[in-house]
Amino acid sequence: MSQSRALGRSTAATSATKVRGRGGLLPVLLVAPAVVLLALFTIAPAVYAIFLSFRRMKVGRGLLGGGKPTGVFAGFTNYAATLTDSEFWASLARMLLIAAFGVPMTVILAVVFALCLDAKRARLVGFARLAIFLPYAVPGVVASLLWGFMYLPATSPIGGDVVDYFGNRGIFFSVANVVVWGVVGFNMVILYTAVRSLPKELFEAAELDGASELQIALRVKLPMITPAVAMVALFSVIGALQLFNEPTTLKPLANAISSTWVPLMRVYTDAFVNNSIYEGAATSFILITMTVAATVLVNVASRRITRRQSR
Amino acid sequence: MKTPKSVAAVGVLVAVTLAVAGCSGTDDKPAASTSSSAAEKVTLTYVNWDGGMDKVVDEWNKLNPNIQVKLSKPSGTGYTLYNKLITNNKAGTNPDVTEVEYQALPALIANQVVVPIDGYVQDLASKYDKNALSQVKFEGKTYGVPQNVCPMVFFYRKDVFDKLGVKPPKTWDEYAAAAAAIHKADPKKFIGNFTAADPGWFAGLAQQAGANWWKADGDTWTVNINDAASKKVADYWDGLINKGLVSPQPNWSAQWNTDMNNGTIVGWVGAQWGPNQLPSIAKDTAGKWAAIPLPAWTAGDTTVGIWGGETEAVTANSKHPAEAAKFVEWMNSSEAGMSSLISNVQVFPASSQGQQLPVLKTPPPFMSTQPDYNTLMATVSKGVRTFDIWGPNANVTFDSYSNAFGAALQKKTALSGALDTMQEATVSDMKKLGFQVAG
């Protein structure tokens, strides 16, 4: 209410009763643009995608179809096709493998950086913070291209002719590396902000009790920023499910990456290479379900941890 | 793995509904629906990725003040473009004219993206041989004027071959021997590479070996991707790869470009259009390459496959199909159009009359040391052998090629197994779409 009064252009005198009178309306108006945009560009396409996922294309009779191809009801066949395809599960496994390496790395490195930057003896904090954050500002596609050049033997300054960065196993590290490099800075900033907002008295008290800098970082600061760490972990898990840019950009450079290497690449290939929007829609719906499930899981887990700690 | 967006998984599909048109859409002028409205000024949009095409379009615009063509480059080549056309078709935002490689035309016809132009162009049968026409004619309707013929040839670094005393290969046996000789002289050098990035490349080699991936009988398709001829080609390259005589680097990658430029790779099984692409791949080696006919399976055999080759097609979204067809016809079958294509885009025309044009006496700039470059193309194009017809879902076949061959190269399993994967993927997709497939 106070907000609407502050924003209301009407004179203050008329305010009190009048504002209360139209109480429900102004907030609605204020959030309306966001809701409309969300409905138009997120919810409506999602609903349409679900509709599409239950259809398939059928060409007419004749060698090349003869007549317009029609969409027909397909039941659950698109879902069945994805769920029974071993390549889909393989792509999920690849994604999880990258996540298993990437998610802990992004979180652990971000925690380490944040705590280091907050340390009393840290120098050049401003520069270091910017240097760690900067890769986040580089678009994923550009970062992948840059790393691609660094991995390839012909152009590599980091020993591409000795290490096969695009080998069967190396490729997972190579992709995860690009991802970690790009995300750590963002996570670090969130955690650093969390650390900075902690009350200074606590550290002083700990110091008086004879705690070392390291002990303060690990025993005092870290437990207190656990909620922020949990949130960062959640972001990283969701990000892992959306892995697409990096492998797609690296694909033309390496035989090891197929067009269905991770689930989102499969969605893209179905929809825009094999021209089957229907299967792409079904697969993306399956993925959304998984993303929501993963989000809930991480949320519940992190809440448990926080609760245990606050006890 | 960037900022999370809760439903970004469907973000990809948002693009479908909104039909984000990468290629410029059709103009908004009132439709000149009748074909004889030449007096009215129309603007056609045309999408093409070839370097130098702007000059061809400029020439047309000068000659035809009433039918102006606006050229735009697609954001992606090959199937990236074709699938965008299929998607945009539903939204009605396709350009009037688009370039289409022969192998993609059936898919665009099946999706009703392009329209027949028989009513707008003069009789093509007198200007083109059956082979060329079969690339654009389906079920009695013509969907474009054949632009070029792209026989496969072998490019090699003449300076390196001469220095090492290796004779340019005439047969595939000689190619294998030359590969071994080059690798022995300098273990870092390769005679060429096997590419999992270019399905059209392998298809061309399979055509030479006698494969016929698709056949049409009435309304029924026969698919034969894993036939003996194709497997022979796969096994041959398998042997070279296993001995480490050819590089497994995909074409067009940064690695391949560098290797081609610095003399690590000294040969390229390519096609007629190579000199148009080579300047951006290996600019330091201009004038050092020579082209010869593709190695044969048996000495003296002149059969070669094609890699690429294209036509321009008029889209179903076009409001000016008559004018669009006129532009297509001018470009690909008039003397002025073909001459412009030859000198600016380095096309070798499909029309037999075009193959006699005087501009062909000058070689492409990159092949300046080979004055008879186009004479060679005329000779080898006589031995061209293609599939009966390209399948209606060659996009699926091609995508499967890249995945299956890429995986086989990576895991070092038999390449011929990848052909089975392609066959299976192609047939099951055709059946799913409702095409009749024999067997």
UniProtKB/TrEMBL annotation, chain A:
Domain spans labelled ABC transmembrane type-1: 92-298
Main location class: membrane
Membrane topology: Multi-pass membrane protein
UniProt keyword Transmembrane present: yes
A single Gene Ontology CC term: plasma membrane
InterPro entries: ABC_transporter_permease (IPR051393), MetI-like (IPR000515), MetI-like_sf (IPR035906)
UniProt keyword terms in alphabetical order: Cell membrane, Membrane, Transmembrane, Transmembrane helix, Transport
Annotated transmembrane regions: 25-51, 92-115, 127-151, 171-195, 224-244, 281-301
GO BP annotations, alphabetical order: transmembrane transport
The protein, known as: Carbohydrate ABC transporter membrane protein 1 (CUT1 family)
Domain of life of the source: Bacteria
Family note: Belongs to the binding-protein-dependent transport system permease family.
Pfam family name, one: BPD_transp_1
Subcellular locations according to the entry: Cell membrane
TrEMBL record, chain B:
PROSITE patterns registered for this protein in UniProt: PROKAR_LIPOPROTEIN
Signal peptide: 1-21
This protein's record includes keyword Lipoprotein: yes
SUPFAM superfamilies: Periplasmic binding protein-like II
Lipoprotein as UniProt keyword: yes
Keywords per UniProt: Cell membrane, Lipoprotein, Membrane, Palmitate, Signal
The organism's place on the tree of life at top rank: Bacteria
Protein name in UniProt: Carbohydrate ABC transporter substrate-binding protein (CUT1 family)
